[in-house]
Design brief:
The chain is of the alpha+beta class and about 260 residues long. Helix content is about 45%, strand content about 10%. The protein folds into three domains: about 25-120, Cytochrome Bc1 Complex, Chain D, domain 2; about 140-180 and about 240-255; about 185-230, SH3 type barrels. The chain is built from 13 helices and five strands. The chain is globular.
């Protein structure tokens, strides 16, 4: 719940503020607000099982863009996406996933929350390029730089991977990307009872089954108790920071990143 509150309340806080100024509420009229706990459970399940192909924000990659999917937008509590998830679409390269009805419902809630945020995010124009940086950069660059140097400089550099980052993304997207990065798959090394090791992109790790897309391109799965699994999530540090950021931290870091042009 805490992570969702941070992401929904702070990542897109400026967008919601603008929406409120226009007289609109973040949740569409007549539609109940999603359960934050269900959204967070669904986000974790989606990241583990679906993000390798559909991206963590569900906007697509090797797989379809689920935000713009008619099937997903017509889904009611998993009734549309459930059969696709459990049966797969082998002809399109999507394997079946042995998820429970409750897990599928949580994923459905997460996807609907993503759709709601996307629709709010884009209602002000073709895409939110028209939301100026000064409306979002409400912190101080000095404080943001100090935080960055103490917490982030071990992995990132303003003259290296982040050089010119403020030119690569418009302001709303930059804020989303630093708080909720995506596009880097979680990998795993699976050791079989024979001692053989297979490495690849982690597709499923729910305590019952482990599945990867191996470096050979094939889908492999095993009962979780029959193998040893070492998981490497390159974005784990960012997820941990979401538990620690204060409002001031987020605004200061974004304001600093906006200076990296």
């Amino acid at each position: 719940m805490k992570k969702f509150a941070l992401v929904a309340g702070l990542v897109l806080g400026a967008v919601f503020l603008l929406s409120a100024q226009e007289g609109a509420a973040p949740t569409p009229r007549g539609q109940a607000a999603p359960n934050p706990a269900a959204v967070e459970r669904g986000r974790v399940l989606f990241k583990t099982n679906c993000a390798a192909c559909h991206a963590e924000d569900a906007t697509g990659g090797r797989g379809a863009d689920l935000i713009r999917s008619a099937l997903v937008r017509h889904d009611k509590n998993g009734d549309q996406i459930g059969p696709v998830v459990t049966n797969g679409r082998v002809d399109k390269g999507m394997p079946p996933f042995p998820l429970s009805e409750t897990q599928i419902q949580d994923i459905a809630v997460f996807l609907q929350a993503q759709i709601t945020l996307f629709d709010l995010h884009t209602r002000f124009g073709p895409y939110p390029n028209d939301i100026p940086a000064e409306r979002l950069a409400t912190g101080t660059a000095e404080a943001g730089k100090a935080y960055f140097e103490s917490r982030c400089s071990g992995c990132h550099s303003p003259t290296g991977d982040l050089a010119g980052i403020a030119k690569k993304y418009n302001p709303p997207d930059l804020e989303v990307h630093f708080l909720y990065p995506s596009g880097v798959p979680t990998t795993a090394v699976v050791t079989l009872p024979s001692g053989e090791k297979l490495e690849g992109t982690l597709l499923l790790n729910d305590g019952f089954y482990v599945a990867i897309q191996g470096k050979d391109g094939w889908y492999h799965s095993w009962p979780a108790r029959s193998v040893k699994t070492e998981v490497h999530d390159p974005l784990a540090a960012h997820a941990e920071l979401l538990e620690k950021y204060t409002d001031a931290d987020m605004h200061n870091i974004f304001t600093y990143l906006e200076t990296l042009k």
